[in-house]
Design a protein that fits this description.
The complex is a heterodimer. Chain A is built from no helices and eleven strands. Chain A is mostly beta strands. Chain A is globular, with a radius of gyration of 14 Å. The model of chain A has no long low-confidence stretch (mean pLDDT about 90). In chain A, strands 2, 4, 5, 6, 9, 10 and 11 form a seven-stranded mixed β-sheet that branches. Chain A has a four-stranded antiparallel β-sheet with strand order 1-3-8-7, with no helix packed on it. By secondary structure, chain B is mostly beta strands. In chain B, about 0% of the residues lie in helices and about 55% in strands. Chain B is built from no helices and eleven strands. Chain B has strands at about 5, 10-15, 20-25, 35-40, 45-50, 55-60, 60-65, 70-75, 85-95, 100, 105-110. In chain B, strands 2, 4, 5, 9, 10 and 11 form a six-stranded mixed β-sheet that branches. A five-stranded antiparallel β-sheet of chain B has the order 1-3-8-7-6, with no helix packed on it. In chain B, strand 6 and strand 7 form a beta hairpin. The N and C termini of chain B lie far apart (about 35 Å). Classes of the chains: A mainly beta, B mainly beta. The interface of A and B includes residues 40 and 111 of A.
């Protein structure tokens, strides 16, 4: 298993451009997440999904969009890139062990995408 | 008040010593707690999870949970230079769907 994969690893955008960050997992996990991490900071949740066709906003969703058409893929779309979106983006996936949502939620992270907006 | 708080450090300990990392959280109904290790330029990796009050040991790592005090800690015994990293405390929130992370504590293990 490759686990959680993300592409690209690095990207430089100009202000106003758009792009899609790709995330794929091969662990058949129901839950998928997008985080951003600014220097010296913890992880901030952008969007998450509990299954195909279901997405919800996290703590910092403005300027981003997501879709979840399959269990494996969870792309993050940036429209009209701004310098404030310069960050490292991590995708993660998890599953509710034993079918009980609140009992356990180990998240597995992808390697990250380092995005710079100039 | 931040939902999950950690001292940013850096916390410096000599090789072979015990490193103690602390975390407090604000949501009293939280039930699941996690410690992630993150090396510079890398993604977080889970090293410990704890759900019940008390201690949980795994090799050189011990997680401690006190729900009454809303306090989680991570002890690293016999610290090694390879333990030098940022340690992120995470708490399961939002009905079990979401993790809220602290800002992390940077640990430096010195020779």
């Amino acid at each position: 298993n490759a686990g959680v994969t993300q592409t690209p690893k690095f990207r430089i955008l100009k202000i106003g451009q758009s792009m899609t960050l790709q995330c794929t997992q091969d662990m058949n996990h129901n839950y998928m997440y997008w985080y951003r991490q600014d220097p010296g900071m913890g992880l901030k949740l952008i969007y998450y999904s509990v299954g195909a066709g279901i997405t919800d906003k996290g703590e910092v969703p403005n300027g981003y969009n997501v879709s979840r058409s399959t269990t494996e893929d969870f792309p993050l779309r940036l429209e009209l890139a701004a310098p404030s979106q310069t960050s490292v983006y991590f995708c993660a996936s998890s599953y509710p062990k034993g079918g009980v949502v609140s009992s356990y939620n180990e998240q597995f992270f992808g390697p990250g995408t380092r995005l710079t907006v100039l | 008040q931040k939902e999950v708080e950690q001292n940013s450090g850096p916390l410096s300990v000599p090789e072979g010593a015990i490193a103690s990392l602390n975390c407090t959280y604000s949501d009293r109904v939280s039930q699941s707690f996690f410690w992630y290790r993150q090396y510079s330029g890398k993604s977080p990796e889970l090293i410990m999870s704890i759900y019940s009050n008390g201690d949980k040991e795994d090799g050189r790592f011990t997680a401690q949970l006190n729900k009454a005090s809303q306090y989680v800690s991570l002890l690293i015994r016999d610290s090694q230079p390879s333990d030098s990293a940022t340690y992120l405390c995470a708490v399961l929130t939002g009905g079990g769907n979401k993790l809220t992370f602290g800002t992390g504590t940077q640990l430096k293990v010195e020779l």
